[in-house]
Amino acid sequence: MFAASRIAPNAWLRVLFSALAALLLASAAAAQDREARFGDDNIAVQLFADGMPRAGEEWMLALRFTPSAPEWHGYWSNPGDAGLGMAVDLDLPEGWVAGDPLYPVPKTLLISGLMNHIYEGQYAVLIPINVPKDAMIDGIPNVPGFIDYLACTDQICVPQDAMLFAGQGGDFARWRAEIAPMLDAASQFELSGGNLRLLIPIPEAVELPDPHIFIANTQLVNYTAVQTFRREGDALIVDIPLHEYRSDDPNAVGGLLSFGENAGVEFRAVPGDVPTGGSMIAGPIGAETPPLWTLILGALVGGLILNIMPCVFPILSLKAMALVRASGSEAEARTEGISYTAGVVLACAGLGALMLALRAAGEQVGWAFQLQSPSVVVVLMVLAVIITANFAGVFELPSINTGTGARKGAGGAFATGLLAAFAATPCTGPFMAAALGAALLLPTPLALLLFAMLGLGLALPFLLIGFVPAVRRMLPKPGAWMETFRRIMAIPMGLTALALIWLIVQLGGRGFGLFALAVVFGIVLALGVVGRLQRAGKMAWPAFGLIAAPFLIFGAFALPSSYESGGEGRGESLLAPQEFSREVLAQARGTGQPVFIWFTADWCVTCKVNESVAIEREATAQAFEEAGVIAMVGDWTVRDEEITGFLTEQGVAGVPLYLWYEPGAEAEKLPQVLTADMLTERALRDRR
């Protein structure tokens, strides 16, 4: 007898059930040489025959299981993480062959982190028998058999067995109707990005209120992972994370597609290409997706909070100068407010659309994906240097509202909005996680609406100043102080440029960073000449092209050749974390110790603040050691498909993400903004 209350998702449990399966299969092989030892008191079983067999035709037998009480349940052929499928040995006449058992659609049952595929109440399994054409039939043959199976409740599991003899009767019409029919059209599968990907031909008119895939191949997929379903015409596209202990790649994949309410179809999939894209019908947050108005509000508030988040501080100088200049006429203020908002919203929606398009094309990307590209970071760094030089008065840039020398009007405000949104993408602030995670799952128009609302929230303060005179009157009047303020604002923008140089080294190595600095030197030199010519009233920008061109050409050849994949990598951590992978996470959870995992990136300022405040602390390291907490880190600085897929499963679109696993329990998401003592208190609580 096995106590299910002690079940935990550990390797020893799988080994135990495997050993039990081998024992019962061995006993079934000797069906005629032994008697039932355990009996069928908890789930009784009977063997029925569907009338008289005919030579050359299929004859059907049925095993009917009847629990003695509602709390007992049986198992599908692949029981899942725990449990045991039945083993049947029939003593058929010579030449008669039993086919694979035919099952009704099972249910899922999650106990202590283990997924079980079960049947509740009375159910029947059909066994087709191929009768030879030359079979001599004189009445219904005496078909004895022996069966081993498992009966479980939520608390205990007990082995069952029985000696059977086929008898007449049974409701074969109903039992046949309950069996999942086989699809006529072939399905296809591929293993890609840590997922089993299936293409199942299902007419678009067929409703799938609560879809779930039961995979017949054992230890191929992660049974507890959330399954993602998309429709593309008459094709159903399914993504299921693979099992952490998967060994060999299958030649074929079989299983059942459940529609919900005990209805479904059986499929057989062969290797083939599985398309990407399609409309989401169920996924990582599936039925738990918040209402649309909640997601819209979360995106709006999240964008608004971005104005005070650390990663947005470098663009505050741009916004401050633009807001001061908006204190002129009311018409000008409204024009600039609308233009700035249009730039922000367009940039956020454009980045969101590009991310969705890349994901539809099979790329594993998330929010702020552009900062995982060294070339994009180099462009951002050059842009930050140019703006710093402009703030410091080295030259005048008339296309962006950066001070007294900038041109007024819609064009400058629009360009400032584009830049503000682009620079803000590394930050996933409070209220944004659910909205951006849902945007990866919703239909494209609704997803773009969420990205646009994020931009509207980011632009909202500037928009209010443009349209509310009372707020505008609170701003200081323009004057000579603006030039001094602009030069002071060169300091944070210069620090931003330095931070981007550091990020370039992290992404591509020191040589890559050195060549990027050489390019920046040429650009700054050219801007200095431009400034001198501007102050002298002469034509300036042709000189910029002449001076900067050699440095830009040098960079075009030198940067790609000096790039080192992986860059400098992560530095030493006080917690000595393991590098994230699904396999490492499964092994850590199997130890029975608490597990803390954080997902971070070098370009995520919020991540770095949290690490300095709460993670990389002596007190945290000591508390983790005393409580036996296993630390793990997922570094998303450069693109990592496994991390991206895992983030998507958790319903988020980017970093930071902090997960805490209690022994034998599912992940608990911690807040995106950590306090100094949050992790130490959690670890000490586990120790007690």
Please, could you describe this protein's structure?
By secondary structure, this protein is an alpha+beta fold. It has an 8-stranded mixed beta sheet with strand order 14-17-18-12-13-16-15-19, with no helix packed on it. It has a 5-stranded mixed beta sheet with strand order 20-22-21-23-24, with helices on one face. A 4-stranded antiparallel beta sheet has the order 1-11-10-5, covered by helices on one side. Helix 12 (510-535) packs antiparallel against helix 13. The longest helix has 31 residues, at 330-360. It is elongated, with a radius of gyration of 32 Å. The two termini are 32 Å apart.
Strand order of the largest sheet: 14-17-18-12-13-16-15-19
Characterize the quaternary organization of these chains. single chain
Distance between the termini: 32 Å
- Low-confidence parts lasting 5 or more residues at pLDDT below 50? 1-32, 399-407
Mean pLDDT: 82
Assign a percent range to the helix content. 40-55%
Overall shape: it is elongated
- Total count of helical runs of at least 4 residues: 18
Biggest sheet overview = 8 strands, mixed
How large is the radius of gyration? 32 Å
Q: Tell me the number of strands.
A: 24
* Structural class by SSE content: alpha+beta
* Strand portion: 15-25%
